């Protein structure tokens, strides 16, 4: 009996060692359900397309991708991260949204598992961690870029800001926007806040912006509260210019959303699905074929993350049998020196603290679709 | 003029709280239980209305009617399955059951309709009436909300004071045992109260989602808590109290947001509640009934 058992165990171990294809285990967490599910699903879908494309090319680099649901909750994100670690994750895609990613990034740092997050943009995600990198702009840069963009295009002089005070993403962008706006020649006439996701009445914030004469309202927030603000402003008969950030991306795919409400809403995002270059068009076509919708910026970030890993692993001559810590050291070396070209930007570079440099593109919603502003 | 604008926003928000609070206060007054699932019945009403209007293209008012029927049925079923068997149980057990019911409804909604936020189609055209050369604007939804709140409140008061069933409800509220001895079917009366409360919840859901057009499985929970606060504020068990409490809560919340701090509005609201309860523990219009030993 014991002999048979030993044989079986040996057989199982052998098949595990030889049978499995040599692939890098790539894991990430994101909101696959919940109010922010649009982001999580998009990032996962984008990453999956890239993984399938790279595996189909049959080169030395192969990936196995696994995403766990964190419902945009920091505690659940850590549980999801631990599940991925048990699975044997060698490289991490961090988390999709900022708050959960701050939690998982700390784990990444402690465990020496390299992370490249597609879209978690708060500064605290990368701060003080040498092995956590971002594919999207860090929040402070979005605030600066928005202020400069509004000023340089002459969109408005008097600006109102409505931000969400219990969200690091919103606060991070607001802080630098408020700091940089006067330098750019903008006057902030009204600044109001709201709290958690159940705060649905914006009449005070909008009335104040309107009476102070704001020509443009800056909305550093996710699309769900933004949809409420747009609807209530229309009911009030207030029609300023609206300017959002990358969290606004996704507003058009909300079920039941009246797209005419978002007409003329501007936002800064690094990805333009209308771009004419071959890579973007190929990616957009494949995404539409598989998931039936135009990919947003999060999908593009997820896609780029996998390709950036592919490039870095190839240059470092890494192999899937290396452990996470070895890969981590190699990836830090590559990411701080390499230049990457992806669908979310050309000449993408990373600084040693994990922040990315690339140019944002201005977009405007016209007739229910995103159109490039420039 | 800005003051008036804020005041109207407050009344608008408050009248939604008031309609929800009516449901809480009626059930509490008659069955002496806090139905914490009330907020979630509102959410279900919102979803039924959403599907009727957005998916099946019904007339919005017909959609609300469908939601009222649906929620009334839901209220009856919930009462029959979860609350009726506990009629003789200690009130704490009933309270816990109600909280459980609230989570049950939320999670069922999560399974059925997923947690992606849906945008509720307004039941009337979005826009506003302009007064004083456009310096004061009152949105259509606000007018509709205030009007429905007044109508519901009037009908409910008439119903309770004039009809036989209303009399039975008042009798149950005062003394269940004595009411039963007088030949009133207490069980049926309590079930009826739940049915009416849930029907009101559907109307509240449609109005809530028209004013703030976002629909998620958790949509009803915070307005539910606020409306419960309003009911306690006005004196729980009292119908005019719920109305007054709801309006005041809405106005205080908006004024706190506008004149004190948009970050502290909820803190101010609950601070006012604490002060009111310290001065008048039974609420603004609540009756202080001495318990005889």
Distance between the termini of chain B: 55 Å
> Which H/E pattern describes the elements of chain A?
HEHEHEHEHEHEHEHEHEEHHHEEEEE
Largest interface: A-B, 35 and 45 residues
Q: Largest beta sheet of chain A: what is the strand line-up?
A: 7-6-8-9-10-14-15
CATH superfamily placement of the largest domain in chain A: Response regulator
Summarize the structure.
Chain A has 374 residues and is an alpha/beta fold. Chain A has 12 helices and 15 strands. Chain B is mainly α and 293 residues long.
Verbal overview:
- The complex is a heterodimer of chains A (374) and B (293).
- Chain A has 374 residues and is an alpha/beta fold.
- Chain A has 2 domains: 22-137 and 278-359, Response regulator (Rossmann fold, 3-Layer(aba) Sandwich); 140-269, Rossmann fold (3-Layer(aba) Sandwich).
- Chain A contains 12 helices and 15 strands.
- Chain A has helices at 2-19, 37-57, 74-87, 98-111, 123-126, 139-152, 168-180, 203-211, 223-236, 278-291, 297-315, 324-335; strands spanning 24-30, 63-69, 91-95, 115-117, 132-134, 158-164, 187-194, 216-219, 241-244, 266-269, 340-342, 345-350, 356-357, 361-366, 369-372.
- Chain A starts with a helix and ends with a strand.
- The model of chain A is unreliable at 14-20 (pLDDT under 50).
- In chain B, strands 1-2 form a two-stranded antiparallel sheet.
- The N and C termini of chain B lie far apart (55 Å).
- Chain B has helices at 2-31, 38-55, 60-83, 91-113, 140-162, 164-174, 176-181, 186-211, 221-234, 239-260, 265-279, and strands at residues 128-131, 136-139.
- In chain B, helix 2 (38-55) crosses helix 9 and helix 9 (221-234) crosses helix 10 (239-260).
- Chain B is mainly alpha-helical and 293 residues long.
- The mean pLDDT of chain B is 86.
- In chain B, strand 1 and strand 2 (136-139) form a beta hairpin.
- Chain B is globular, with a radius of gyration of 19 Å.
- Chain B has a single domain (2-126, 134-279), classed as Orthogonal Bundle (ABC transporter involved in vitamin B12 uptake, BtuC), CATH 1.10.3470.
- Chain B is 72% helix and 3% strand.
- The A-B interface holds A 33-35, 37-38, 71, 165, 192-195, 197-198, 200-201, 203-205, 207-208, 211, 224, 227-228, 231-232, 234-237, 254-258 and B 2, 5-6, 9, 12-13, 50, 54, 110, 114-122, 126-128, 130, 134, 137, 139-141, 211-216, 218-219, 221-223, 253-254, 257-258, 262-263, 266.
